[in-house]
Design brief:
Helix 1 runs parallel beside helix 3. By secondary structure, this protein is an alpha+beta fold. The chain is built from 19 helices and 16 strands. It folds into two domains: 168 residues, Periplasmic binding protein-like II (D-Maltodextrin-Binding Protein, domain 2), CATH 3.40.190.10; 202 residues, Periplasmic binding protein-like II (D-Maltodextrin-Binding Protein, domain 2, 3-Layer(aba) Sandwich), CATH 3.40.190. This is Sugar ABC transporter substrate-binding protein. Keywords: Signal. Pfam families: SBP_bac_1.
Amino acid sequence: MFTRKPFLAMLLTSLFFASTLLASCAGGGSQQSGVTTLKVWFPGSPTPGGPEFSLVTKQLVPEFEKANPGIKVDLQYVPWENLSPKLNSAFAGGIAPDIFGHGPAAAADFVANDRVLPLDTYINNLDATTREDFGTILDGGIVGSKRYMVPLSGQGFLIAYRTDLFREAGLNPDNPPRTWEELRTVAEKLTKRNGNTITRSGFISNLEGYNVQQTFATFLIQAGGSLLSNDGKTITWNSPAGVKALQYLVDLYHGSQPVAKDLHSYALPAAQQPLVTGQAAMALVETGALNNIYLSAPDAMKNIAVMPSLKDAQQGAFGGSGPGLFINKDSKHPDLAWRFIKFMMDANTLKSYYTVTSGIPARSSFINSDLVQKKPFLKQFIAAYSTFKPNPNVQNWVQIRDTLSRHLAQAMAQQVTPQVALDAAAKEAAPLVGK
């Protein structure tokens, strides 16, 4: 969804003309001796022989091939940092895979360069139960009015909290904050100080790099604002709602009674995370961080719960679809490629897949599954799907996001006011919007 680096738009544009000339030999897959080979690239770097790698390559792919005689799947994992350059070269050479995974932020650039196939016909032919089960997660790959991606998982940001620290402060962990006002009040009760130094933050969020934009988007949504207009052509983050959201965040860290300390620790191992060590009582997190704690610090996880999305003007959270699968427009076997994607969407397939990955189950019916019983922190994320709003699927989004992030960081450091930061970001990003 949201944090992966997509294609460099200018590079893709220049390579598009070369790939067009080679379209006659494009298509990824091949057909020999009655066997059709589908070339599939999954993003990521799972350890060879590890749980995800073994499940996908040794179980799921053979299951698909057994159910579809005559189809062989050539599946490769491509590290995220290599994915865009490798796809660029493959498109230019007419040898891109039939199916490839990427984040939704890349969708608009793929579409602008005519590299991916619209999937609406296939999706509309799914049974109603499947479409309803995926719900708004299927909207993650929408560009314009068409769908181009099928998400394998969801991603989102909610506030996790230490139930034991709630009790220690005389708070009811079964009744966590539901509004900004309540969050501030509870955070003050949970914050510990040694003089003017915060020794335990009542609340923290990730302000490192582009993560500050995701934190801001969470509160912007709850304030009733948006990053861009509905048509994606106008910047709206510097609205009164945007200023209110950013001021609220600044005050949490720098107000007359700050409750947050910038710990710069989100990249640390799970056992050193602030929620685990007790350096923070509440933290805005995504499921990957909680999954790492679940796996590496299970004793701490027993004292960590997740609250529903907060509300100011409205209830909401930053989130939506995670990475998903696209079909190369030049694939010679689009129907067979869709057959593989449909297999990956199957409930039984996904139940296996989610046991070894950290995303939110894309099917809302999984909220009562054994998987969620084992990982109860997932329940609130699935329940919050209807309140999730993602970053816009527009061209140049990564450059736009990074521009906004730089100015947000200046406001969070109190170098400029929220209004000045948001206006400056809007002015700098304006030439990139609506292209």
